[in-house]
Amino acid sequence: MPHPNLISPERLFECCGWYYVILPNHIPLLDICTGVGAGGPMLPLVKDLIAGLSFLHQHDTAHLDLNPGNLICTTENQLKIIDFDLALRAKKGERIFGIRGTEGWMAPEVKKNNGKDGFEPFKVDLYSCGKVLEFMDRASKHSLGKWLSDAAAQLMAPDPETRPSLEMLQWWL
């Protein structure tokens, strides 16, 4: 699924029985937020995150491991979502079971009863997106203001049913 905010290889090749993937030059989001990387305005990165996640969800795909370690920026300051090891295809309202994600970035319903109660994967992505937005706002030297912390808090609502949709978030932006 090609999209400007999802990582795609620049080149694939096989040599001596091994397969190699060449990825674009990038800067970890962590470095951007903490000032180690190129820096620059954060709002475009927030919009890129929402656009990439919206695209995945529109194509019935949940990432299930959104965290700053799985987000990079190109040298042109465009955010890209990477690491689709835990991603899965699902229908809206479908529940899945088990523990998926990175500790500290998972929605509470994922860990509830050790994942045996199940959860809606798209709502879990919303929670993790809120955690990432909160991280970006707190770690960045370029604060985006109260609206971002409010949006992050709503996305991290303990009740998955009260989390705003990505469409609502795009409207706020």
TrEMBL record:
Pfam families: Pkinase
Entry-linked SMART domains: S_TKc (SM00220)
Residue ranges of domain Protein kinase in the record: 1-173
Xref: InterPro entries: Kinase-like_dom_sf, Prot_kinase_dom
One GO term describing the cellular component: nucleus
Entry keywords, A to Z: ATP-binding, Kinase, Nucleotide-binding, Serine/threonine-protein kinase, Transferase
Tagged with keyword Metal-binding: no
Molecular-function annotations in GO: ATP binding; protein serine/threonine kinase activity
Name of the protein described by the UniProt record: Kinase-like protein
